[in-house]
Specification:
Structural class of chain A: alpha/beta
CATH superfamily of chain B: P-loop containing nucleotide triphosphate hydrolases
Number of helices of chain A: 10
Largest sheet of chain A: 11 strands, mixed
Number of domains of chain B: 1
Low-confidence stretches of chain A: none
Strand order of the largest sheet of chain B: 6-7-8-3-9-10
Shape of chain B: globular
Helix content of chain B: 25-40%
Number of helices of chain B: 9
CATH topology of chain B: Rossmann fold
Oligomer: heterodimer
Order of helices and strands of chain B: EEEHEEHEHHHHEHEHEEH
CATH class of chain B: Alpha Beta
Distance between the termini of chain B: 48 Å
Number of strands of chain B: 10
Strand content of chain B: 15-25%
Mean pLDDT of chain B: 88
Largest interface: A-B, 38 and 42 residues
């Protein structure tokens, strides 16, 4: 880890408060050790294979100085995102372009780089306030080396009609990048955020942190799509805090990467808060896709629902480990969690570990998980209608994912994501 | 039109889990004809239907089954379907997220048949069979009632236009109205398209709707009697046991091994579509 030091953290520039914050975090990192698979939160993961000593943070010479926004308009991804009201293009964690419709700007919406847009104490205080309660080595690392971050700040009462998109691209062999995103939706506001991650087939580590603050009676829909190249590692933390009667839907689509991990957490802090979490993942070759979820009910009459569905083929592996926590005060809370996995080849594997911690006595709660191959009866039924076996399996796999695809908050991308799943399935050579 | 097609089954023997269930079945169905196979539970009727369709855990030990001279046995299930065979299943399986249109579209595309206007044709056919729109929007058979499943089986039959249809207890789980609608649609296909039908049933009530040209009685893996509608009357009168005595047949049924239904891979876990809560 010799490259992840205080000097490297300081060198990334930006306002003094941010440099100080980075340096403090780099000191924490310096005093920490890498997590191991012995820890429950890393169980079944491939963390033991990660030698951070082989990587260095993308240096400032490559990142360029903060505020250098020479990037063009977001390329094909911006087009695929469809109509949007704001966009951030982020390269190796550095915001290289930001745009926002003038009407929203006039209403006080901010879509910009944390390092350059002169953020006030509210923003400074919000940054890190959500992930603080879920300590993670890679969050510390992100605190130390994020050059800035995508800020999406929606004032109270503002409704943002079209999505705000954050497009991340990371590349460079032997380098690590640290995307950071802060979404804050003020009271009674409404916004959809699409965050998309990609890389070429670089031997690169992406350590991404996204914090979402959903104010009282605010409605937020958030979709993250991960389509990294086949040698890239992605270690993601996405955590949300929900206020009174707040509604949050978070969705994750994980398709790329060598080892790709997402911690997805929602904490329901006030009465009436509702969290819906869905995910689609599809692993092939020797990929591992790893999910750790937390539905944390602090307040009474809160509701959470989770549906994660994945498939693995070839020698790919997936891990789903989910926790529902119903704290003492969370009476009349409802929490549901379902994880289903299709294992398409004998060499592939899926772990599914649901967990409950219930400290309240008047709650509704259920969880369930399944791991299994394509159902032979279903294949036979389709074949009996004249559908060849591979086509039958493709139909079954797409059908399996259909209920999650139909719940993705950004419908415009669904066809594109569906076809990526079809491509992966069709290229699964061993069938 | 296909008026000259024939499905010919000769001396068909098949085993399930090592036990011989079919013990020499001979049967010829011509285009436009309706044949009914009746028999007591456990006589091998459903085994015949799945053996013809090529269900993976059913093993043919001898015999042949051809459509217009093309051998079906030994070929893949989907090839048999493409050769013109359709099996309306007794227990159609639920496939979440795969709509009838997806299924029919994939089947037609695999045969190189154009799918232009498919949605419209499907809607027209659904109206004819009184299948409500919601059952076209959902995954096929997904939380359908017994009657809806059979209507949708018939819908697929009408869309795929096979030469021969095996209807495996299509009358089970049907109320009187649904039975009539399904039977009328099938009869229309025999008249309009020359569809040949092999209807497997346990009950006589299907016969009053389907009006078969020929009735066959199956016992212990063989067809023991064939004839016209009078056979149904005879059965009505004396029952299967009485008929067996008249024919000098000792065995009515074949003892089936206990677990033949599922052919799941035992090395992996449960069906991911199943409700883990058991609700």
């Amino acid at each position: 880890m010799q490259h992840f030091n205080v000097d490297a953290a300081r060198s990334l520039g930006g306002p003094q408060w941010l440099v100080d914050r980075r340096v403090a975090a780099a000191e924490v990192v310096g005093a920490s050790t890498m997590p191991t698979a012995a820890e429950e939160i890393w169980r079944y993961s491939r963390i033991g294979e990660l030698d951070l000593g082989r990587y260095r943070p993308v240096p400032v010479e490559e990142l360029n100085a903060p505020g250098d926004e020479r990037a063009p308009g977001g390329g094909p991804w911006a087009l695929e995102a469809g109509k949007h009201s704001g966009m951030l293009v982020v390269r190796d964690g550095r915001v290289v372009r930001h745009e926002l419709s003038p009407e929203l700007e006039a209403k006080g919406v901010r879509v910009c780089d944390i390092a350059t847009c002169g953020v006030d104490e509210d923003v400074q205080g919000a940054l890190g306030s959500v992930v603080r309660d879920s300590p993670d080595f890679f969050t510390d690392l992100n605190d130390a080396f994020a050059p800035g971050g995508a800020l999406i700040w929606i004032p109270d009462g503002v409704v943002v009609e079209d999505p705000i998109v954050v497009l991340h691209w990371c590349e460079g062999d032997g380098e690590a990048s640290f995307p950071r995103t802060l979404v804050r939706a003020g009271r009674n506001s409404d916004v959809t955020v699409l965050e998309r991650f990609g890389s070429p087939s670089s031997d690169h580590v992406v350590d991404a942190v996204t914090e979402i603050i959903v104010g009282d009676n605010a409605h937020v829909r958030y979709l993250s799509v991960q389509e990294h190249g086949s040698r890239t590692w992605h270690i993601g933390m996405q955590r949300a805090h929900l206020g009174r009667d707040a509604h949050l839907k978070t969705a994750a689509v994980a398709l790329g990467g060598d080892y790709a991990r997402l911690r997805a957490e929602s904490r329901l802090d006030e009465q009436g808060a509702e969290s819906e979490m869905v995910a689609v993942y599809f692993g092939d070759h020797k990929q591992m896709l790893d999910f750790r979820t937390l539905q944390d009910h602090v307040a009474p009459r809160t509701r959470s629902d989770l549906l994660f569905k994945g498939a693995v083929e070839n020698e790919a592996a997936s891990v789903y480990s989910g926790m529902i926590r119903l704290r003492e005060a969370a009476q009349k809370a409802e929490a549901y969690q379902t994880n289903r996995n299709l294992v398409l080849d004998h060499g592939a594997s899926a772990e599914s570990i649901p967990n409950l911690e219930i400290f309240a006595n008047d709650v509704k709660c259920s969880h369930g998980s399944t791991v299994g191959p394509i159902d032979d009866e279903q294949r036979y039924y389709l074949e009996s209608r004249g559908v060849p076996p591979h086509d039958a399996e493709r139909l079954i796999v797409l059908g399996f994912f259909d209920d999650v695809f139909s719940r993705l908050p950004h419908g415009g991308l669904v066809d594109r994501l569906r076809s990526t799943v079809i491509d992966k399935f069709d290229h699964g050579a061993s069938r | 039109m296909v008026a000259t097609s024939e499905l010919v089954i000769r001396d068909l023997h098949a085993t399930v889990a090592g036990l011989e269930i079919l013990r020499g079945v001979d049967l010829t169905v011509h285009a436009g004809e309706v044949h009914a196979i009746m028999g007591p539970n456990g006589c091998g009727k459903s085994t015949l239907s799945h053996t013809l369709m090529g269900r993976p855990d059913y093993t043919v030990t001898s015999g042949s089954a051809t459509i217009d001279g093309v051998e079906l046995l030994g070929t893949a299930t989907y090839s048999r379907a493409q050769a013109g065979l359709f099996l309306a299943m007794q227990y159609p399986v639920e496939i979440p997220g795969v709509r009838v249109e997806d299924l029919v579209g994939a089947s037609l595309a695999a045969r190189g048949v154009g799918v232009e206007g498919l949605a419209q044709r499907l809607n027209d056919e659904a109206n004819r069979l009184l299948v409500r729109d919601e059952f076209l929007e959902r995954g096929v058979n997904d939380e359908f009632s017994g009657g809806e499943k059979k209507r949708v089986e018939t819908l697929q039959l009408a869309m795929l236009r096979p030469k021969f249809a095996v209807l495996d207890e299509i009358d089970s789980g049907l109320d009187v109205d649904a039975l009539r609608d399904v039977a009328r649609r099938v009869v229309a296909m025999t008249q309009e398209d020359g569809l040949g039908v092999l209807a497997i049933t346990h009950y006589a009530r299907l016969l009053t709707e389907l009006k078969p040209d020929f009735i066959h009685v199956m016992m212990a893996g063989r067809i023991v009697a064939s004839g016209g509608p009078e056979i149904a009357d005879q059965l009505e009168e004396v029952g299967y046991e009485g008929l067996a005595r008249q024919l000098g047949v000792n065995e009515l049924t074949v003892q089936k091994p206990l677990a033949t239904g599922k052919f799941e891979d035992p090395t992996v876990g449960s069906n991911p579509f199943a409700d883990p809560l058991g609700l």
